[in-house]
Amino acid sequence: MLEESDDPVVKTVQPSLKTGRKWKVTEAVDEAKECLKMKKVIGQTQTDRRGLGSTTAKWWSKTGGKEKRDMIIDEIRNKDDSTRVQKAVQQPQQGQWTHWDTAI
């Protein structure tokens, strides 16, 4: 939120956020931004059984303000969910719920 400010003094302020050892906020946000920019380069792809053009895509370069923050939060959340599912799939007994259609 501070990085998107119009004031140059506010842009330069970097607050220290204590999150623990395994997760760094600045790294996660930077990675999410790069991923969103890469999605713009790749373009819209088909997902699930829906065809191309059935959903509207939000592009990083065409949004601003709150929409960009929401996109970053969603991207971080999606990445965390995918890593959680990957860990569950790697565990044969605990990861059996990934094969159920209704659980996901």
From TrEMBL:
UniProt superkingdom: Eukaryota
Species of origin: Plakobranchus ocellatus
Region of interest (Disordered), ranges: 80-104
Protein name according to UniProt: Reverse transcriptase
Keyword vocabulary terms for this entry: Nucleotidyltransferase, RNA-directed DNA polymerase, Transferase
GO molecular function per UniProt: RNA-directed DNA polymerase activity
Residue ranges with Low complexity bias: 86-96
